[in-house]
Description:
The protein has about 600 residues and is an alpha+beta fold. The chain is built from 13 helices and 26 strands. α3 (about 345-360) crosses α4 (about 375-385). It is globular.
Amino acid sequence: xxxxxxxxxxxxxxxxxxxxxxxxxxxxxxxxxxxxxxxxxxxxxxxxxxxxxxxxxxxxxxxxxxxxxxxxxxxxxxxxxxxxxxxxxxxxxxxxxxxxxxxxxxxxxxxxxxxxxxxxxxxxxxxxxxxxxxxxxxxxxxxxxxxxxxxxxxxxxxxxxxxxxxxxxxxxxxxxxxxxxxxxxxxxxxxxxxxxxxxxxxxxxxxxxxxxxxxxxxxxxxxxxxxxxxxxxxxxxxxxxxxxxxxxxxxxxxxxxxxxxxxxxxxxxxxxxxxxxxxxxxxxxxxxxxxxxxxxxxxxxxxxxxxxxxxxxxxxxxxxxxxxxxxxxxxxxxxxxxxxxxxxxxxxxxxxxxxxxxxxxxxxxxxxxxxxxxxxxxxxxxxxxxxxxxxxxxxxxxxxxxxxxxxxxxxxxxxxxxxxxxxxxxxxxxxxxxxxxxxxxxxxxxxxxxxxxxxxxxxxxxxxxxxxxxxxxxxxxxxxxxxxxxxxxxxxxxxxxxxxxxxxxxxxxxxxxxxxxxxxxxxxxxxxxxxxxxxxxxxxxxxxxxxxxxxxxxxxxxxxxxxxxxxxxxxxxxxxxxxxxxxxxxxx
Length: 588
């Protein structure tokens, strides 16, 4: 949720759509035919504007075929596929984690598979052919050059790393890393390099880079372009990728038990994957489940190489509290479709996690709580109102106002922190208010999309001619942004008011918001949370505004989004202590 005409969201969602599996083939293929199937198979999957490289690595041993699947354009390797069978020459694969499947026919020569990829309502052709040369995994490659630079996007600094290597045929290959977004080894479609310049084309993300070497060939001064937008990017040659310091990350072995677990959301018919930690001695223990904020997040709520949920889990478990944290649906190892889900769907996932905790013998069933961050701070009260098993909730930067109000305040604060002029902020505020009011009032209207496009185009017409040519105002980019703000999640977020739900919460509540939080402004939200709890007669709640903490609960100077990755602190020790002491007090 960012400021500006086209800054509504800045998180990059990477959809992991293909995955590792054991394939048992049966049917009309004889052993010698099975051996022919073994090898590397590669094809292109066209998804909208994207062309994704798909690779199957198939091995034959002990009269059985096994395989792994890569999607290098998404930085995804050796990911799991389930229930793979062969009937005759028809190969079928079921990928439960993302509700997808692949079916194809192997030809007589066993060098091509013609098939179809299906996911949800989507059905796309996918043909793969056998490769003559073995495809080498990125971790096995010796890179001849590594280049690193920093991209400035909407006040956020993102590191980009280009790793160049020699292919077996003598041509150049490369991979792209975006460490601050947790993405590694995105395949670079083409590399053109000479003494003067470097040209890169990354088809999967529609990104390009063009730069010229300086006189010493130690820097490349150039431009990164993506979807029509251009940004200056200078790359510097390095022997090693810069690693950010994250001193709070715990190191193994841990002084407690840690289990990889899965649990069911029967209503959605999906399984969610997570990590359950609990102390070694004593028990049963008070327990808390962690619920992440907006955007597809893994169980550690990882962002800019910070892992706040890992830090919280480690700290609480060391202090006698069991913790469950899990991957959002459709993310990492959890099943489901993230893109179509709303906050209410995520609430059902969260309640399913509570049901799982209730089933564990290590957990005191009368002392189970839920801690939600940001959107998770909306979900925790919603879950408490619909789940009798919850005994307390913790809201970390949880909103007390409707999404419309949150976004308008957020846009203004972030724009100001990014150094925009007051006149520019005023213009953005006027436009965003009109936009969010339109969605708020007409969210169920069949004409909503057309009304939004009319509002945007009217706003563009009022701009100076010099600004109208900005690639951000292209038809393609406008359509993309309108898709986001007319999604079920966004429309639901805009209109949802947490106050009626808070009025119905009678269990203990701890609400913490940082003084420097620009995404959920503390003063306005604390007032509303307090009023709602008091109106409902809740006698056991604690609300605190924590000095200098930002939206991620890092000790900060300004609270700007651009600080998140630069700060070494992941989660304030003061906030950790407050959470721990409060849980132990109410569960003693």
